[in-house]
Amino acid sequence: MDGRTPLPTLLSQTLVAYIIELDNEFEHRMPHRTTNHGRSPSTSRGPWLASVAMWSTCMRFVGEEGLRVRDRAKVARTRTNLAGLRRWGYITLERDPADWRVAPPEADLIIHTTAAGRQANETWREVFDVIEPRWRQRFGATQVDALRDALSALNARFDMDVPDCLPVLGNGLSTRDGVSGIEPRRPGGAVPTNTPEDVTLYALLSRTLLAFALVFERESASDVALAVGSNVLRVLDDGSTRLRDLPRLSGVSKEAIAMALGLLERQGMAVVAGDPDGSRFKTVRLTELGLH
Question: Which of 78-82, 92-96, 221-225, 275-279 comes out lowest in average pLDDT?
């Protein structure tokens, strides 16, 4: 690099900021609960608060007639958390009335939104109509239009047609294992059917970062997923780093860090041990393989 901030970092920072605003606005508008002591003021009941990730990978595709579980995977082309969405009160999984089997597999069940799920879908549509105009006012219409134009131009040149959201990551926090059904785009073939004005800034940012991650993991000489490298490897060096400092250094949760460190340890790239300075805190250091 020439000293400039890497492209995936810029994309990620912008997308995370956008998602935080989407989620915050949804939280303000949608009756919900988070804990017994943190319920929405407008109701003592309601679904568990969920992020735009759950809307993007499942709920947005469920219409009035419902959606078969196997068909959700085809249209979303990424994993989701069906068990969570059921438990949180947004969807039900029901047997197809025409299916005579006593216990059909989950893939043949029909996803239906609950009343709360339908309200959430409507709320998400409202939220998307709010955030981008807010960004245009805050950062300037010229800047946001330039960002849109740049992302749209990149999207039109991708050699694959990627989903409109980041995937729920697969094994090893792999991006490529979290997506499915991505067909190569034929040379000279049609670009996505949506016009740039129809595509949300959230989708444009997600598509671009996802395409970068897929190419990175496809061409990388190691088996380290981009998420692991970006969240943990980049903040480690040839010395020891206290585990307690990693959330602050990386900007990601301690749970995500624990998962990534477990992968690095199993791959022989990192070692978690006691502090060499004698404190009670654990530290992590990279092995020669990790440094390479």
Answer: 275-279
- Smallest CA-to-CA distance from 226 within 169, 180, 175 is with 175
Helix (H, G, I), strand (E, B) or coil at 225: coil
pLDDT in tens, 241-259: 998 999 999 888 889 899 9
How many Cα atoms sit within 13 Å of 237 on the Cβ side? 2
β-bridge mates for residue 184, sequence order: 160
Q: What is the pLDDT of residue 132?
A: 95
Q: Bridge partners of 67?
A: 111
Which three-class secondary structure state does DSSP give residue 268?
coil
**Within the chain, where are the H helices?**
7-29, 52-57, 69-76, 82-88, 115-139, 141-157, 201-219, 226-231, 246-250, 254-266, 288-291
Query: What are the Cα distances from residue 75, in Å, to 36, 67, 69, 276, 285?
Result: 35, 10, 10, 51, 42
Residues 6+ apart with CB under 8 A from 214: 160, 162, 175, 176, 179, 182
